[in-house]
Each structure stands twice: as C-alpha cells, then as structure tokens.
Design brief:
heterodimer, A: 256 residues, mainly alpha, globular, B: 310 residues, alpha/beta, Rossmann fold, Alpha-Beta Plaits, 2 domains, 6-stranded mixed beta sheet, 4-stranded antiparallel beta sheet, 11 helices
Chain lengths: 256, 310
C-alpha cells in the first residue's frame, strides 16, 4: 500500500509540473464550456418560442435540453483529452530509462500500475471538477436535478477511467508518447463506433458489438439510471485493460 | 552472498551472456570488467531482477530472483548505467519516493534522506529540480537513491562514465567508503578504476567469464617471469645482442619508449645483478634499471585478444 501511495504521489507531482496537464485541462474546459454555452443559448431561444407554443413549453426542461446533452458532449471531448493524460505514463519511463528503477525497486508491477492508474484518475477528476462550475452557475438561476447530474458524472468518471486503463496499456507498448497517444485515441474511437456495425452484422454479432461499444453504456447513466449491467461493463473493461497491461509488462523478462 | 550458476541470456537468437558462473562473498568489492557489449549490464540486470535469465540462476543470500523477486530487490541498491532520474522532481522529492518504495516512512525516511544527501554531498542541492543539475550532481543523486535504506548489496553500472576527473575521484572515494559493511558490485571498462577500487575482478568478454581473481594475482598469473626495464648508454644493437646471450633471458623488446630496453626473463632473482654486471663490464653506462609489472591494461588486452583468437 505504501508503494502504491509513493508511486501515486510521484505521478501526481510529475503530472502537475508538466504543461501537458494544464494544456489538456484548458482545452477540455474551453470546449466543454462552449458546448454548455450553446446548449444553454438554444434552451433560451426555445423558451422564448415556448411563450407562443404551450405544447413545446410542456416538454421544455433544463435536464433534457442542457444537462443531458452536456454529458454527451463532455464524453466526446474526453475522447480527445484522455490520451494526453495517459500517454507519458509508461512511455516516458521507458524512454528516460527510469523504468529500470521502477522495476528494480521492491514494489510489484501490480502495485506500480495501481499507483499510476489512481494518479491518472485523480488528474482526470481534477480536470473534470472544472465542469461543475457552469452547472453551479445555472443552479443560481434555476433548479437542477442533482440526482441526475450525480448519475451522469458517475457515468463520465467510469468512461474516463475506462479510457485511462486502455491508455495505460497503449503507453506500456511503446517508448514514444505520440505513438501511445495515437494508439489510445484510435482504440477509444473504435470502441466508441463499434456498435454502429450492429445494423449489418447480423443479430448475434450485432448485439455483441453493441454491448462492447463503450459509449452505449453511458446512456443510462445520463438518463439518471444506474444500471448494474453498465456498471459491471465499465468495471470489467477497466480491469481487463489493467490486467493486459500487467501481462504485457511481464513480457520484458523473455523479450529482453 | 551472491552465487551465479551457469547464467545464460539470449536476446532473440543472439547470446548476450553464456554459462557465466561466479560467487561473491559478503562485504567484497567486485568489479565486472569487459569491453562494451561483453554482457556486464545484462548480468547486472538479471541480478537486479529487471531481466530473467534464459537458463541458469542467480541466488542472493539463497533467494532466487525469479521466484522471490521482491525479497531480492529489497536487498539491492542499484544505479543503472544511464543514471535514469525523474527530471521533474526535486532531489528531496525523488529520494522520498525511492525511500518510501523501499519501505521507509516518517522520521526514518527523513533521517535516511538526510544521511544519503550528506554522504553524497548534495545538501545544498536538495531542493533543486533534478532537471537543473549538472551531470556529476545527477550521478550523485543516482548514487544516493541506490544507498537509501542502507541496502546490504550495492550494484553500480559504470558509475564514473561521463564525469570529469575531479568528480571521478570523488565518486571512487564514495564507493571505497561503502566497503566493509556492504557487498559492492560495479561494472566498468575503465581499468585503473578496477585496480584502485576492487578487491576482485571478473573479466568478461563476449558474454563469457575470461578470468576471475584479484587484480594483483591476475597480473602475476599472466606475467611469465620477471620484467626488467633498462636504460643503457651504449650502442643499442650490441647491447641487445649481449643481453640476449645471457642465460635465462627469454625475450628482449628494444623498441620500448624513450630508448628503454625491456628484458623478460625466467623468475630468477639472481639474473638482475648479472645483467647489471654485464653492462658495466662492457664499458657501457647503466643509467636506469627497474622492475616492471604487467599493467591491468596489458592483462586485459591479452585476455580479450586470446579469447578472440579461439
């Protein structure tokens, strides 16, 4: 446990002293903020229209028009930003040779990986915390459904953690950060769109593809439903990629 | 105690280390000596559990690194060849990380940081970022992380490469100071370093152990008989002919630098007065006469080239 904490602390110190984290957070918040702003503006325009249209006014609510789309938009921005948070994790250690220290210190590969994963999730949460600001501002004008928001954030955190697990794996494959980032971005995108093949893949394969599509499982969280199947999907996805990373790190023994 | 038995490591189809066996007792300072690519780093990496051997094994205090990796790693402080450090951390942060991973915490951790910082003369640099340190200082930080938590075995892979002469002297002194309490293993291709620091040398070439002994014994073993260097005031060819005629002289090298003549002879002490007498009686001037031992450089070159011929 002490080893995990030491790695966690080291990773956090390095992450917060690197400009990558600040650049990624800046862009993430600007783009998410822009999405939020446009959603809010559209909502305002609809509200004016609803003045003349009682039918529209009935269906108009902040949750459906601002909050739910906000989570969907955030997921897209995460697709682009999470590779930047994980790309250096193992790749940089390999390039600088510090991996030799990490692997010869008395700490198991699993504990080191746990520390790295926890640190990436922590930096991700720090980044995500900034997105609470527009919601808090909105709360001052209207009443928001914080249960729905909580469930949406849970989904986003699980999605982000899944991306991080996969990103750590691609980072362990190479000593080049750019390649690690490109690989993880490509892999995220594939897991995102793989469900689209459902329409032509036949009933059995189609349903499998739909279920491994990473973003499908976000829908229920965004709707405010915490479905155990979706929860389990994300947890399995995270542990699967952490496990594969660990197995891959072990291959150093016979690859030399 | 470290015992290596028939250690073999292949990188793909290329053998890096073949059938290497050695034994290092507690408290010894042992040098691995060899040209680049001889397999020194590979052996140290296997010893530190970074790599696993293709066959054979290394036992550290009876523990096999393949099955008891963490226990073995706890006993070892390692400075890799490239001196990898986390550039973004300060010296203190980095040492705190190393110390914590090695099992220290609280006051014990702070005490150990203070100890290694002062023994590696880093006190005034402890709050500086590693990125901003000079190469020599980085080397000392690398040494400090290897020494934190006082490991019984210290392994240093080419610890003086890339340092300036003053820093080299300093690092060598530090390594010598480690002796006694700890087992120290260092690899190098700098020969004087070995004869200055190490009690025992293991010479490697092309992945095999070519020789293993104390630096003194090694030179003694390979030196066939006595070597005497003469500086004679007289006609060189005649002097050479006269010396060659003496009984017991095995070889004469006249082209020694500075007009000196190197006489190799059987290990018979009585020959030297005879040489002196012969020269004086011939009417030449004997300006200088001294014995010469085979240097470790010569031993090394001899061993490595002999190996190459096989």
């Amino acid at each position: 446990m002490r080893g995990i904490m030491a790695v966690f602390k080291k990773e956090i110190t390095i992450a917060f002293s690197s400009p990558i984290f600040y650049a990624a957070t800046f862009i993430f918040l600007v783009v998410s903020g822009y999405f939020f702003y446009t959603n809010a503006i559209i909502y305002t325009i609809r509200s004016f229209q609803a003045g003349q249209n009682p039918f529209l006014a009935e269906r108009l609510n902040l949750s459906d028009f601002v909050v739910k789309p906000f989570f969907g938009d955030m997921a897209i921005v995460l697709l682009l930003m999470v590779p930047l948070l994980t790309m250096r994790s193992y790749a940089e250690e390999k390039k600088m040779g510090t991996i030799e220290l990490l692997f010869t210190y008395p700490i198991s590969d699993g504990a080191a990986l746990a520390g790295k994963f926890a640190a990436s999730v922590f930096t991700f949460l720090t980044m995500l915390a900034g997105t609470l600001l527009p919601l808090i501002l909105l709360e001052t004008f209207a009443h928001l459904d914080w249960g729905l928001i909580g469930s949406g954030y849970l989904g986003i955190v699980l999605l982000g953690a899944s991306f991080i697990a996969l990103g750590l794996f691609t980072s362990s494959l190479t000593e080049n950060q750019i390649i690690a980032a490109v690989l993880s971005f490509g892999a995220f995108l594939l897991f995102w769109v793989i469900g689209w093949a459902k329409s032509f893949a036949g009933p059995t394969l189609g349903s499998i593809l739909e279920h491994i599509s990473i973003v499908v499982h976000l829908d229920s969280f965004v709707k405010g439903l915490i479905d155990s199947r979706d929860l389990v999907f994300y947890l399995v996805f995270i542990f699967f990629w952490l496990f594969v990373t660990l197995r891959f790190l072990n291959t150093r023994f016979w690859r030399g | 105690m470290i015992i290596a038995e028939n250690l073999t490591k292949y990188y793909g189809l290329k053998p890096a280390v073949q059938n290497v066996s050695f034994r290092i007792e507690k408290g010894e300072i042992v040098g691995f000596l060899g040209p680049n690519g001889a397999g020194k780093t590979t052996i140290l990496r296997i010893l530190t559990c970074f790599l696993q051997p293709t066959s054979g094994k290394i036992l550290v205090d009876g523990l096999n690194g393949q099955t008891h990796s963490l226990e073995v790693r706890k006993k070892i402080g390692f400075l890799p060849e490239t001196v990898p450090l986390y550039d973004e951390l300060t010296v203190k942060q980095f040492l705190a990380f190393s110390g914590t991973v090695k099992g220290l915490s609280g006051n014990a951790l702070n005490g150990e940081i203070d100890r290694v910082v002062s023994s590696c003369s880093l006190t005034e640099h402890r709050e500086r970022r590693i990125r901003h340190l000079s190469k020599g200082l980085k080397q000392r930080v690398g040494l400090a992380q290897a020494l934190i938590n006082n490991p019984p075995i210290v392994i240093l892979d080419e610890p003086t490469t890339g340092l300036d002469p003053a820093q080299i002297v300093e690092v060598r002194k530090l390594i010598k100071d480690l002796a006694g309490q700890r087992t120290v293993l260092l690899s190098t291709h700098i020969l004087p370093e070995v004869s200055q620091i190490c009690e025992r040398v293991i010479i490697l070439n092309q992945g095999r152990v070519v020789a293993e002994d104390t630096p003194r014994h090694l030179t003694g073993q390979l030196q066939k008989g006595l070597r005497t260097i003469l500086l004679v005031d007289g006609p060189p060819t005649e002097v050479q002919a006269k010396l060659e005629s003496l009984r017991g002289v095995t070889r004469i090298v006249a082209s020694h630098p500075g007009g000196e003549i190197l006489v190799e002879s059987a290990a018979d002490e009585s020959l030297r007065p005879l040489i002196a007498k012969t020269i004086v009686e011939s009417g030449w001037g004997l300006k200088e006469m001294r014995t010469s031992d085979l240097s470790l450089e010569e031993v090394f070159v001899q061993l490595v080239t002999e190996e190459g011929k096989d």
